[in-house]
Amino acid sequence: MGRPLFLRANADRWQEELAWDADGASLLLVRTRRAGTERRQLVGAGPAERLAAAVGRAASDDVDEVAFGLLTRGTWDLVDAEARTRLGLHVGPGWDWMWSDAPPPVQPGEERVAPVTGDRAADEVRACLARANPDTSADPADPDLRWWGYRDEGGVLRGVVAVNAPAGGPVHLSGLGTDTSWRRRGVGGAMMAAVTRWALTDHPLVHYGIWADNDAARRIYTRLGYAVGQEIENLRPKTRA
Question: What is the pTM of this model?
């Protein structure tokens, strides 16, 4: 049996060091780079009970310097207390990994969506993000990201989304946001539809993460053909007193 789709779709985004398999569940120790900083993290998918067993094995193998983790939601509570202590992590907010491999229905406003290009592209994206999604970790300076945006009739960016599209591989979307004064006008849906349709001409699937409590976004993306492929719990380092 192959690895779960969540792991296969994201494989281009990390460097794998170690792996533990447990009858349908897989746990990886990987290296990732974000904002110029490299870190090690545990990433796992599959049934929570079996994945918890793999986490226990990783802790027994004295895996250290783990800065973060992504596991099937509900796994951490099934990991024994000693293993949790060794890893030094705790559960943060959950999110849903959504994916699609089918072109979406055409949405109103798609004609306003296009790649953001030109000498001022990074500045334009930053200005839009300040109004639309100031907390995103997606960086206009990241060379792996290509930004798309929705422009109003005056040419001003009212929404943006970051696209990571490795040649021939799955496309990962991040940093999506709509100017607060333009919300509830279909901007987000238009961007997701246009980018998804473009991506699926040369890539096998498109994927994106949303916070687990963002039901409004889930409804929009479900209408566009996206499905929840993995319910994720974040693991973060415990804060020290």
Answer: 0.92
